[in-house]
Structures are given as C-alpha cells and as structure tokens.
Amino acid sequence: xxxxxxxxxxxxxxxxxxxxxxxxxxxxxxxxxxxxxxxxxxxxxxxxxxxxxxxxxxxxxxxxxxxxxxxxxxxxxxxxxxxxxxxxxxxxxxxxxxxxxxxxxxxxxxxxxxxxxxxxxxxxxxxxxxxxxxxxxxxxxxxxxxxxxxxxxxxxxxxxxxxxxxxxxxxxxxxxxxxxxxxxxxxxxxxxxxxxxxxxxxxxxxxxxxxxxxxxxxxxxxxxxxxxxxxxxxxxxxxxxxxxxxxxxxxxxxxxxxxxxxxxxxxxxxxxxxxxxxxxxxxxxxxxxxxxxxxxxxxxxxxxxxxxxxxxxxxxxxxxxxxxxxxxxxxxxxxxxxxxxxxxxxxxxxxxxxxxxxxxxxxxxxxxxxxxxxxxxxxxxxxxxxxxxxxxxxxxxxxxxxxxxxxxxxxxxxxxxxxxxxxxxxxxxxxxxxxxxxxxxxxxxxxxxxxxxxxxxxxxxxxxxxxxxxxxxxxxxxxxxxxxxxxxxxxxxxxxxxxxxxxxxxxxxxxxxxxxxxxxxxxxxxxxxxxxxxxxxxxxxxxxxxxxxxxxxxxxxxxxxxxxxxxxxx
Length: 570
Fold this sequence. Notes:
The chain is of the alpha/beta class and 570 residues long. The chain is 55% helix and 7% strand.
C-alpha cells in the first residue's frame, strides 16, 4: 500500500501546503453569492479558485524555506527534534489529502443548502445535496488540468533554458533571469493592450462571421415601416444578425390590434448595422434618414435605443412601447460592435458611449426643428452596456431634462457615470439597492412597479427610471469589492438575495465576478433578467392617456407569449 502511495506521490509531486491553501480557497468559492449555481458551474469556479490557492500555497512554502526558516534561531536543532519516520510522514500526508477531500465535500453540502435557499427565493427547482457534490469532481479535474498545463509549460521553459545554456553558452544563472524578463515583458504587453488588442481583433473577426448569419425565422420585411425592406435606405444584408431579427420580428398592426382591442398602426423600426455605412457618424445619419423616410416624426412616441455589444435590442422592451401606443411609435437603433457586451465592455466601452451620443444627438437635432405641438414624445432606452452608452449622450439630469421627454435604463453596470453620481447622492437613510434621490422628484429606482411608486410624492416630467434587481451582479460588480465593503452588503438584503451572503476582502469580488458569467440564467425578475418589468418602466416614464389595468394585463400576457416564441425560433 505504502509503495503504491509513494509511486502516486512521485508521479503527482504535490505541495502539501499548496493543498491546504487550495482547500481554503475552495471553501471561499462556495460561499453564498448573488445567484444560484449549477453543480457544473460551481465545479469550474471552485476548480479555478483552488488552482489559485494552490499557487499561493506553493509560493508561501517557497518563501518560508527561502527567507523565514534560515532566520529562525537554532532551526537545525528544531529539525532534529522533529524527525518523523517515513511511515509517520506518509500518514500525515494521507491525512492532509483526506481532510481536504472530506472537508470540501462537507462545505459543498452546506453550500447546497445555501443554493436551495436562493433557488426558492427565485422560484427555481431546488438542487439536491447529492447532486451538488458532483461539483467536487469537476473542481478536481479542473485543478488537475490547469496544474498539468502549468507543469508542461514549466518543463518547456526549462528545456529552452537548457538548450540556451548548451547551444548558446548562456550561463544558467543568466538564462533564468532572461526568461523571467521575457515573461514580465509579455505580461506588460498583455495589460497594456498589445496582445489584448490582437485577441479582440481576432474575436471581432470571429463574431463578425456570426453577425452575417440570419435566423430562418428572420424574414426580410416587405413593409416600408421597417429598415431592411425593399424601400429602406439600410440594406437587409448590412443590418447584422441582431438587426435583421429586430426589424423582422416587430408585431404587426393586426397583432397589436388583437392584443389591445383597438385599431392600430404599423410600428416603425429603423436600424443601421456596422456595415450599413462607413463611419459611426454616417450610421447615425442613416438612421435619421430612415426616420425621415418612414415619417417617424408624425408618431406619438419615438424611442432612441443604444444597443448592447452585438446590436441586440430586447424584444419585450421594444414591444412594450409598441403595444402601449397601439403601434403609433418608432424605434431607432444602431450596431457599434460585433462583440458581445462582456467583450465590448473589456475591449472598448467607449464605442458604446460614442454610438449612444451620436444617435441621441443626431435624432434630437432633427426633432428640435419640428413644431412643438407636432413632435413625438422623444424617449431614450438602454440595457446593460447599452445603458452606459446611452448615458454618454448626457452630462447629467439637467441635460436629460433639456434634450428628451423620458429615459428608461435597465440593469445599469456599476461603472455608469450618472447612475453612480445619483447613488452616491441618494437621500440619507435610503438603501443602495433602492435609493431615493431628491424625494423622487426627477429620477426613480426600482425592481417592481411598486418600487417606482415610492415615495408617494410628485414626480415631474421628463421622468428617468433605473430598473435594477438586488440580485443583478452586473449592477453590483465593481473593482471596489476587492477591499471595500459596499453599502448594499451593510444594509438589509434585497428580497431575492441570500441573508447568508457576507462581504470578505477579495472573496466577495471573486464571487460576484463569477456570477457575471450566468447573470441571465435565472427566471425573469431576478439577476440580469428583467422580463415584463420593462413594461412597468415604460408605464412610469411615458404612460399613454388611455392606459388601464385590462390593457396592461393583455399586453403583459402578449409579451410573455412573444418571448416564448422567440426562445423557440431565434
């Protein structure tokens, strides 16, 4: 048995201090966070966390041997006092390994209970403890894979150093520093954007290929009220995948009349993709030309949308305004990137800001020339990264009040400039997750219609609404989480947030960072999935004169039906 254990140890060559620290990092990785996780996702997160912990443990072990142990008085005498036999050493090593494995299973069982609490809060099917324990297997495989790759790279580096030493006669004590310098330079280049830019260029090219694909359910519109139609100035094949879906799937006048029980007009949807014009300025001007062509200025409501990275416009948000106004509406949007929002945010979030500013100002410039009594209600919308881009069109609340008639921003990232200013200046005693600013006179925050009705004081036009969930990691993620406890973790938790979640330096930052990857993997009304709550947002911002509970109920039902159709066909 011991011979087998020795052979296994020789093959794996583990660092036992590294294992202990890895187990601690594993425990941190399964602590409560904002969103419930599947056993597979948790296994990946815990595996990566354990690898980091193992590396930290190895560094600590090396530093102790290098600097601490030699400085301990009579260290040699202490070593002689504790000189266990091989059997005792073997037993200690096995105990460490077993303790790590059993301890991980124990903490996972406890984590399964936290997961069930969250799942119940969000109306999900609760996980089982036995099923959740599979996360430990995934974590172990992840650790083995990463450490194996690291050791392969280390072996290659050592081989290169040896070749340099033999072939080029480079002294070994020089070769290693040279290798270290090369790695350092590579890291600097990476963080300064040389390699990162190359990566994003490749990613952009890859996603541009996806941008050329069209869902079989997205059929080129024939109606002149849509971009991409034969009458349009923006050609169908230039709109991009999301743009084609957006203009092809608008509800018809017939559908709107069926839902509202009243006569309806064909809603206008205009869109310009990255390939529709040469420059961002030209793209914005093309959208204005499309608004001219479709006579959008004669409609009751005109919504300017700053899209997410790929050019996506949320179906339920667009349809909400179209159903509310009986199709007497126009929606304008542009594409500014091929990349999904996460990559766009990392690579060049300025593109979103530039696109939002150009489109809002271009539309406003034409809108402002119209007689006041004949202007449509000018509204602005953005979700996630789109809200950040949309905010870029304004300097602050005064600018918003000057330029537009209402704003709806959904799931704003924590780095949004105006959102941050309002959160920081919220009325004393109001929580960060649902702040009240200036007694709700100009802007309101909420996760439900009831939230937006608070406080019960005057709310003057133009109205600004931020929809944000207490459980949305995109709203609450920030680098500040590394070493600063946020107010939302000092205050009472939101209705769909675990009471067990606590702030720990670095740990909470890592946990919320992991939540970002599956922010939409929860039911509507939680995380970064806002569902028909956007209807409540539009009602708060721009309620039409004929609004009533029956109409609201019918529209909400239609929105649910339409999104199910989209899930099945897109």
